[in-house]
What does this fold into?
Amino acid sequence: MDFDLTEEQRLLKESIDGLLTDSYDFESRKKYMKEKGGWSKAVWGKLAEQGLLGLPFSEADGGFGGGGVETMIVMEALGKALVLEPYLATVVIGGGFLRHGGSAEQKAAHVPGIIDGSKTLAFAQLEKNSRYDLFDVATTAKKKGAGWVIDGEKFVVLNGENADTLIVTARTKGDRRDKAGVGVFLVPANAKGVAKKSYPTQDGLNAADITFTGVEIGADAAISEDGLALIERVVDEARIALCAEAVGLMDESLKTTVEYIKTRKQFGVAIGSFQSLQHRASDMFVAAEQARSMSMFATMAGEFEDARERSNAIAAAKVQIGKSLKFVGQQSIQLHGGIGMTMEAKIGHYFKRLTMIENTFGDTDYHQRRVADGGGLI
Amino acid sequence: MDLAFTKEEQAFREEVRQFFRDNVPADTRRKMVEGRHLSKDEMVAWWRILNKKGWGVSHWPKQYGGTGWTTVQHYIFNEELQSYPAPQPLAFGVSMVGPVIYTFGNEAQKKQYLPRIANVDDWWCQGFSEPGSGSDLASLRTKAERKGDKWIINGQKTWTTLAQHADMIFCLCRTDASAKKQMGISFIVFSMKSKGVTVRPIQTIDGGHEVNEVFFDNVEVPIENLIGEENKGWDYAKFLLGNERTGIARVGVSKERLRRIKELAGKVESGGRPILQDPAFREKLAACEIELKALELTQLRVVADEGKHGKGKPNPASSVLKIKGSEIQQTTTELLMEVIGPFAAPYDVHGDDGSNEAMDWTAQIAPSYFNNRKVSIYGGSNEIQRNIIAKAVLGL
It folds into this structure.
C-alpha cells in the first residue's frame, strides 16, 4: 500500500505544473478562450512538445505507456490551472477508444496526429433523451455496402468545433434503450452530412450540437458494432479523469479562498479571523481531502480485475467528488462575498467548471443509485 | 501508488482474524454487535486473553511488551478488532497513561505500573475534564499542594469514563497557581481507593452509566506519584492526546455496523417488502458506505504516510479522521433507528444486567443512537477539530 508518486511521476507533475504556471495565468486564459473553437493551438503544441498528449499510449503506438496515475497527475494540473484545451476529449476519451478498441489501422491513422498535436477528437454521445445512460442511443448506423450510414442528433459535444474526428455512438440494431447493438464509429468532422452548431459552455469551454444526416462512412470507420462494454470502459476512465480534474479545481479554489479571507478586512480585521469563516474553510478542507482520497481510489480502481467492483468504485468516487465539489464550489463564492459573484474574479470560473463536472457522465444521484444497485461497498 | 496490501500483510490479517474467531468469547461479541454494555469482568477477561497472546499493548516499545509491528500492521489489527467486533484495549491505560509513563516516568514508575496496565491488573481512568474546563482544558482548577512527602489534592473532575471500575487515576492538577494557565499543571497518578475520593455516577441520555463525577477532598498522595517534572503536566497531556490517533476514525466500527444494518434491513418490512429494497433507504445506505470508503482511504493515506516517513509531524488529515469518523458513526446509528422505525420506542426496563436473555434485538438501538451523540463531542469536539484545521493546516 502506497500513495506516493514515483520519482518519474513527480517529475511529470513538476513539468506540467511548470508549463502551466508559465503559460496559463488567468489573463492568458481569457485570450485563449477567444481563439477559434475556444482554446489555444500554441498551448496545445506545448503539451505535445512535452509528450503529454502521448502519455497514455503504448510505446508501440508512439506513446509513453503511462497509466492511470500519470493521467491523474495531468488532469489535476489541468484543473488547477482551469485549462480549456481538449485533453479529456482527445487524449482520455478519443485516445481511450483507440487504445482499447481500435484496430491497428485505426490506431495508425489517428494516434500519431493526437500525439504530435496536429489532430483533436470529440466524443459525440449525448442525445436529447439519453441523459446519463450510455446505452440509450437513438442515432442509427445502417449498413450500406461495405460501409455505414449515420443518422441522428448529438448534443453538447465538447471540442465539437475544432475536432478533426468525431467518435460517434450509433445503434446498429435494436431499440433505443437496448443494451445490445450500440456501435462506435470514427466520423471525419468534415464528412458530408455533418452539421455543427457550436457555442461556448457555461464553464468557458466550447461545445457543439451536431446533426448527422445520411453521413456515409467506410467499413474501416467502425471501432465496434456492439460496443457498450467498450463505451463503459472508456467513459469510466473519463469519470476517473474528471475526478482528478475536480480535485485540482478544489485545491485551487480552497487555496484562493483562504488567501482571500486572510487579506480581506472588515471591522478592522481580516475576515479569516472570524471563527464561523474558519470553520467553513475547515469543512472545505475536509471535503477536498475526502475527494482526493476517492480520486486516488478511482485511479487505482481503474485497474481492478472485477468489473462490478471497478464500476462500483468509480461510481462511488464520482458521488464523493460531486458532493465535495458542490460544497467547496459554493462556499468559495460565499466566502469571497460580492466579489465572488463577478466575472472578473477567478474564483467564479472555478465554481462553474466544478459545477459542470458534476453533471458530466452521471451526476451524484445517478452514481449513488449505481452504487446501491451494485450492492454497495461493504 | 498501490492499494494492495503485501502478502505478509494479508497473512497477518488472516492470523489476527483467526485469533479473534478462536478467542473472543461468543457472549462478548454478541453484546458488542447488539450495542450492549459489557461488564467489567467481561472486558478484563478479554484483555487478559489479548495480553497473554502478546497483543495487549501492541504499539508500546518492545522493551515494555510491545509487538514491534509496522504502522500498517497496527492499522490492520485495529480494523479487525473493531469490525469483528471485540473490545479495544482500555484506552486510559494502554493508549494514554502507559505511553506517558514509559516516555516521561522514572524507572521505578515504569516497573511499578507498566506490567499492571498491560494485564489490566489496574483499571485506569482519566482525570482531565472539570465542570468548568471542557474544551478549555487548561483552565482546570483541581489543586495539588505539596505538604512534606505528600500531595494534598482537592477539587473535582467530571466525565470520568468508567471511573466506577477504576483502581487508578491519572490526573491533571494545578501545582502553581501563580503561573500562566498552561504552565502550573502537573501530571499525578494515584489510587481511586484513596481516602477522600468519591465517585458519583452521571446517567447519560441513553440511560447508561459510562461517565462519572469524581470528587477529591484532601486526598493524600505520595510525592513520588508525580510523573515527569512538576508543572510540566500540560506538555504530557498534549503528548497523550496527540498519541490518540490510531483508530480514531473507527472505520472498523462503522463497517461492522453497516453490515448489521444490511442484515436487519433485509428482515424488517416496509410497504410489504424488506426495507433494504426501499429505494430511498438504499440510497441513504449507499451514501453512508461511500462516505465511509472515502474515510477509509483518507485513513490509509495517513497510515501509509506514517509508515513511510515516520510519525514526525502530526498529519493534518487526523482531524479529518475525527470529524468524518464521528459523523459516519452517528449516521450508522441513525440508519439503524430508521430500520426499526416505531419499535425504537419501547424502553428497555431490564437494562444490560443480563436478566432478560430473550430481550428483543431492538432494545439497544435507540440508546445506541442517543449514546453516539457523544462521539462528536469527546476527544476534542468536532468544533475544536475545525479550529485545529483552520490554524494548523490553513494558517488562519
User: Anything to note?
Assistant: The longest helix of chain B spans residues 279-309. The radius of gyration of chain B is 22 Å. Strands of chain B lie at 124-127, 143-147, 150-157, 168-174, 185-191, 197-202, 211-222, 226-227, 269-270, 273-274.
